[in-house]
Amino acid sequence: xxxxxNFEIWxxxxxxxxxxxxxxxxxxxxSKTIADAFDASADIPCRIVFKPVLKTPDEITxxxxxxxxxxxxxxxxxxxxxxxxxxxxIAGLGLLNKPFVHLHTQFNRDIPWDAIDMDFMNLNQSAxxxxxxxxxxxxxxxxxxxxxxxxxxxxxQQRIGAWMRAAAGWxxxxxxxxxxxxxxxxxxAVTEGDKVEAQKQFGMAVNGFGVGxxxxxxxxxTDADIDKLVAEYKDQYKFxxxxxxxxxVRGSARIEAGMRAFLEQGGFKAFTTTFEDLHGxxxxxxxxxxxxxxxxxxxxxxxxxxxxxxxRTMKVMADxxxxxxxxxxxxxxHLDPKDQxxxxxxxxxVCSSISDxxxxxxxxxxxxxxxxxxxxxxxNVAPGPGLNASLIDMGNRFRMIVNTVDVVKPNADLPKLPxxxxxxxxxxxxxxxxAAWILAGxxxxxxxxxxxxxxxxxxxxxxxxxEYLLIDENTTIPEFKKDARINEIYYMLANGLK
Length: 498
Ligand code: MN
Prior knowledge:
The protein is an alpha/beta fold.
């Protein structure tokens, strides 16, 4: 996975010639000071590149052209140190196709009450300069994040950092190739969708491949490749496998090596499988999928390409953060009225990046699929905050639904459950959380993460220009229904406002 510090965010300051060379020189110095501080901040994951202060429409337009053309630049921080008459920004913002955040800060934190004079007033004009810039962004219907506060505050830097992670996800999905082994699980609705519209909206290319083509690559895997992987399994997991099941383990390693080779060869970053289309595969890929996800691949089961792309995007956004991100499914409920919670799992395919401790590698029969006993790693997930995200196709738009959750300990050890699992309480509780999710049409498949917050997900949807519905501790059903209804009208009309 390309590390986030390989990407550039350009620090762009708006001004004008009115102030004279002395003031503009100071604006330049101040901007560079902030850019350098951000670049050195642990809360800022990308490289910050200072750009000389913009004073004319031509300079602004050229800067936006340069940003569009630079593959390493994934977004802009804009700051109005002084007043930058915003008609100067119309042409540039009109053609800018990179996301931007409006940093509404002032170089001097405090008003020097005893010493303040017109020089201070002349230099520190963000309070009104930022409003002029805000007007033109809103007038042009430009989606952007606005972050207010002093630039040295860690909360300000964290919010900029969150936006940057979303920008990295946006960059990723625009260049993503998603590989589908087989098609959709027959008759399933939510995993379907318009792939042409998805490519138009997100940039990702989603294409299908015959399982036979994958099997041909798997059959070329050598015994030496398999030996190497089995040695890794013994090293990385508690290896709870009987002698009789070693053939299953070797079969799983063969599938893993073949899948990895296929995905690398095609430049794919996300993939899907489906248990209804395993022709020529010895077993349903379980461990192989778990390990490929842990390496950074996005995955969706039963042909779910939207969730596969989402999981990959979330993994890129979470690069370097603690917690892990996985494909997930709301599997079964605990409905004790005093202790309502969800057990999330899948048949096999949960990413070991969310494991609490060393996973246990096991081989068990699987009723679904009609193949040899599949290999999987089994683990629990540590308590703490997390979220589930679902991307659905509403027909006229894509909708992202996010539900924040508290991961909790299972009520017992689950000794007979042979799959990785995570137990959570949705916000604000299961009764409201699940009702809102279902009213919104959220899928049973999700991208689950303990690394990202709702802020990351919201920032991403702003960049993608898609609908965002959040279910959190403040959600009530009447308000949620109202939001969803207003969104129906908004998205019907929004294209006419451009
Ligand atoms: Mn499923």
